[in-house]
Write a structure and sequence with these properties.
The complex is a heterodimer.
Chain A (H helix, E strand, L loop, with lengths): L26 H4 L3 H14 L3 H17 L3 E4 L7 E4 L2 E9 H25 L4 H4 L5 H5 L21 E2 L2 E4 L5 E5 L8 H14 L1 H4 L10 H11 L10 E4 L8 H11 L2 E3 L4 E4 L2 E6 L2 E4 L2 E4 L3 H4 L15 H6 L4 E3 L16 H9 L6 E2 L3 E2 L3 H9 L4 E5 L9 E2 L5 H13 L4 E5 L5 E6 L4 E10 L2 E4 L2 E4 L4 E5 L13 E9 L1
Parallel strand pairs in A: 3-24, 6-14, 7-8, 7-12, 12-13
Antiparallel strand pairs in A: 1-2, 4-21, 5-6, 5-20, 9-10, 10-11, 15-18, 16-17, 16-18, 19-20, 20-23, 21-22, 23-24
Helix pairs in contact in A: 3-7, 4-13
Chain B lengths: L2 H30 L6 H15 L12 H9 L8 H13 L7 H16 L2 H6 L2 H22 L4 H35 L3 H14 L3 H8 L5 H10 L7 H16 L9 H9 L7 H4 L3 H24 L1
Classes of the chains: A alpha+beta, B mainly alpha.
């Protein structure tokens, strides 16, 4: 459904010879309704910018990320690390407020259901008894923690922060690609992208009525306060980081700074008599809520990985006594397992008695015989993913692969069917993205990482999120660790 | 305040101050030595730079590779005492506490680091020495302004001050030791008195103290008034006496609530440094090199006391 000539080929500008392809949903060209007009306005604003002017702006924006230290380091070339910025595209993505309202409702509904599921799983397991979800599926997940059995965290909240990934299909609808309810990252780039956007293209930005994103840190702090342990009035909240060599360290420090709370490492904390303290220059100070950015396995060497130097010995015991709150709760990983994902729409009906607002991408579970049979026969039409990994690692896209590659992948799946799911290659929407080597815009595939907060009597969804771009032509993998970039996302009314 | 954060702030202050002293020393000493009245004077200066910064002594007999030494002092990331390395450490300390400091301060330090790390070595060693060192000095005062203006003057700020003051004291003493060595070399060569006198000028310039020294004494700087000014002037903020006073003030404020041990840290440090408040230049002039070495060892001892008291 590629359109009439919104962009006329032949004009010398950033959109010269902009490629259009049938069957691809280009949000800039194919959108209808008010968004269509917003994009028209946006494109004509960008068309007044010459290519060299745009390059200057692009460089200035990149430079501002470098100056603010919004970088990640790689240590293979140089012991002091080579610092890189995450590519940022100045052409924003627009979602209309009305459409966003529906997405927002869907995200809250989904996160509520996941919380109810986790509570059920660690208590009565009704959903398993009622046969809605196969027991083996849940118990075979490495992320189910026996330490959580029978324990209810404050507000009965497990997934306080949920980073749901959405994609837009060529039918124009949004689908949930995956849930991320362990330590979802990326929100700092939403904040940084917005700042860079406003400073670089203020004359464009001010033409639109864009929802703000700057309220995220205060919402996050309010959520942390809401789940404080029983009997604590003024909780001491901290962010727990693995340290500054972690690739998300910038995010950990910026969130702590914007909330005005301490950023601690495991070595700053200790547990005494089942209470958690931090070492200050004036002695120990009690800590009540920990927004932890380290994985379950490293939280407490006494309970989990005994070699962990990142965690705090005795933390789980203090947690189970209700003396400290961990955000997100340990053991949430069982609910964002990609094989469990298949059942989230059923969970929504089961726990909430509602129809799912956001749909799943159709998913084949390789541990189900009939599904496995289908997957084996249709490898070239599917994307195969490990159930248990994030960051775009281990993904196998069948299309264009050799027979040998496919045969090898079949064997890998057959050796561990529970370890894999498969989904049809979704036609991820594309978006106009500046390609530096070509000095002009071209369509690239995008998705949307959203951020939902749930606490005790507290719910919040960040308006917009992180639109991630697969910068490589034709690539569907948007993760920053795999060469992806990002865009500012505007909710416009 | 987390002990780890206090420690990082302390070292951030120390490394920043070190950067500035090294840059100023290179700048002043190098350009002063270009008006040479003796062919060995320039060579002595280059040796003096290696000595002050703590680079390994070049082999006697071999011709000095001036460019190599100057690059090593400033831009060599494998040399742990170069400007680049000191600044890298300052920035790593700042980065690990960036949630505790203002964005303005962090960005000032980060920009400073980017300036130094991206400075082209070829330009530096041919025609950029003045430009580079002047920019480093400007960046330092910019960073110091951000420390003063954009942070709460709370206990974290006190630890930064403590780091700056302690480093500054030790750099002043090191620079004095280094310059005294230069002068004894000049004496050995039997060079002119004027040349020796010029060295006092250079010493004061290295510490941004020449104009105020002249004003204070209404006299051209000589050995006696230069030494007195840098060690004992109560009104000049970069004299050892003033810096010790500031260090004690910081420690008193930090220590308010600390009850570790019987004797407070400010008591113990005061005991170490109190005699310097009442010394006169006549009492030390006979054996200045030993006096300065002893002073330096006390400064290192104060640093150890602080580390033990707050960071362990």
């Amino acid at each position: 459904m590629i359109s009439e000539t919104l962009i006329s080929a032949g004009d010398m500008g950033l959109f010269t010879n902009y490629p259009t392809r049938n069957g691809m949903f280009d949000e800039v060209l194919s959108s209808r309704g008010p968004v269509q007009n917003y994009y028209k306005q946006l494109v004509s604003s960008f068309e007044t910018i010459s290519s060299s002017e745009y390059q200057t702006m692009n460089e200035a924006a990149k430079r501002s990320f470098l100056y603010q230290g919004i970088t990640f380091a790689t240590y293979n070339q140089n012991s002091k690390g080579v610092e890189r910025i995450f590519p940022f595209d100045l052409f924003p993505r627009i979602i209309h407020q009305a459409e966003w309202n529906t997405i927002e409702k869907g995200l809250l509904q989904r996160t509520r259901a996941l919380n109810l599921f986790l509570h059920d799983l660690y208590h009565d397991r009704k959903i398993l008894k009622d046969g809605l979800i196969p027991k083996e599926l849940v118990f075979s997940s490495g992320n189910m923690l026996k330490e959580m059995n029978g324990f209810t965290p404050p507000g009965s909240t497990y997934c306080h922060i949920s980073g749901t990934d959405l994609i837009r299909h060529s039918d124009g609808n949004y689908y949930v690609l995956e849930d991320n309810v362990r330590c979802p990252s990326g929100v700092s780039y939403v904040l940084a992208n917005r700042e860079a956007m406003k400073k670089t293209l203020s004359h464009v930005f001010k033409q639109f009525n864009v929802s703000q994103v700057i309220d995220y840190p205060s919402a996050l702090l309010a959520m942390l306060h809401s789940v404080r342990p029983h009997g604590v009035d003024e909780p001491v909240c901290v962010v727990l980081t693995p340290g500054m060599y972690n690739s998300a360290y910038y995010e950990h420090s910026i969130l702590a700074q914007k909330m005005g709370i301490e950023l601690v490492e495991g070595r700053d904390l200790f547990v005494e008599q089942d209470f958690v303290y931090m070492n200050t220059i004036y002695g120990p100070e009690k800590v009540d809520v920990i927004y932890r950015r380290i994985d379950d396995a490293f939280l407490d060497p006494l309970t989990f990985n005994p070699d962990s130097a990142l965690g705090v010995p005795g933390l789980m015991s203090a947690y189970r006594k209700g003396n400290v709150t961990l955000v997100n709760a340990p053991g949430t990983g069982v609910s964002d397992d990609k094989a469990v994902y298949v059942y989230v729409p059923d969970m929504i009906k089961y726990y909430l008695g509602e129809e799912p607002i956001l749909n799943n991408v159709h998913t084949y579970r390789c541990d189900v015989k009939s599904d496995l049979g289908y997957v084996m026969e249709h490898m070239d039409e599917l994307v195969v993913k490990p159930v248990d990994q994030s960051g775009g690692y281990g993904i196998f896209i069948g299309a264009g692969r050799t027979k040998e590659d496919i045969a090898l992948q079949r064997e890998i799946i057959k050796s561990n069917p529970r370890g894999y799911i498969a989904q049809p290659i979704m036609n991820l929407s594309v978006h106009s993205t500046y390609i530096e080597s070509k000095e002009k815009f071209e369509p690239r595939h995008i998705d949307l990482r959203t951020f939902t907060l749930i606490g005790k009597d507290f719910e919040y969804v960040l308006k917009g999120g992180l639109s991630r771009v697969a910068l490589k032509e034709g690539s569907l993998i948007v993760n920053s660790s795999q060469g992806g970039g990002s865009k500012d996302t505007w909710i416009v009314s | 305040m987390l002990s780890r954060v206090a420690e990082n702030l302390f070292w951030m202050g120390r490394y920043l101050e070190r950067t500035e002293h090294v840059a100023r020393y290179i700048n002043v000493a190098y350009f002063a030595s270009l008006d040479r009245s003796h062919p060995r004077q320039h060579e002595l200066t280059i040796l003096s730079i290696t000595d002050m910064i703590g680079l390994p002594k070049p082999d006697a007999g071999n011709e000095l590779n001036e460019e190599e030494i100057l690059v090593s002092a400033a831009l060599d990331d494998t040399n742990p005492v170069s400007i680049l390395s000191a600044l890298y450490s300052a920035r790593e300390n700042a980065r690990s506490v960036r949630e505790s400091i203002s964005s303005e301060l962090w960005e000032a330090i980060n920009n400073f680091y980017l300036f130094v790390s991206e400075y082209p070595v070829d330009i530096y060693k041919t025609r950029g020495l003045s430009d580079f060192t002047n920019h480093v000095i400007q960046h330092c005062s910019n960073v110091r302004g951000r420390i003063q203006q954009t942070l709460l003057h709370d206990v974290g700020w006190l630890f930064i001050q403590l780091g700056i003051q302690l480093e500054s004291t030790s750099q002043i003493v090191r620079i004095m030791i280094s310059k005294l060595n230069d002068m004894s070399e000049i004496n050995k060569l039997g060079l002119s008195r004027t040349l020796e006198e010029q060295q006092w000028d250079v010493l004061l310039d290295c510490l941004e103290a020449k104009d105020m020294c002249k004003k204070y004494y209404s006299h051209i700087p000589n050995r006696e008034n230069t030494i007195e000014f840098l060690l004992f002037c109560p009104d000049f903020p970069r004299s050892v006496k003033s810096l010790f006073r500031s260090i004690l003030n910081c420690l008193k404020k930090i220590d308010r609530k600390n009850t570790k041990g019987n004797k407070t840290i400010d008591f113990r440090v005061a005991k170490l440094v109190s005699k310097y408040q009442y010394l006169e230049v006549e009492e030390i002039d006979d054996n200045l090199p030993d006096f300065l070495e002893e002073l330096l060892s006390k400064i290192y001892l104060i640093s150890d006391l602080i580390v033990d008291e707050f960071f362990k």
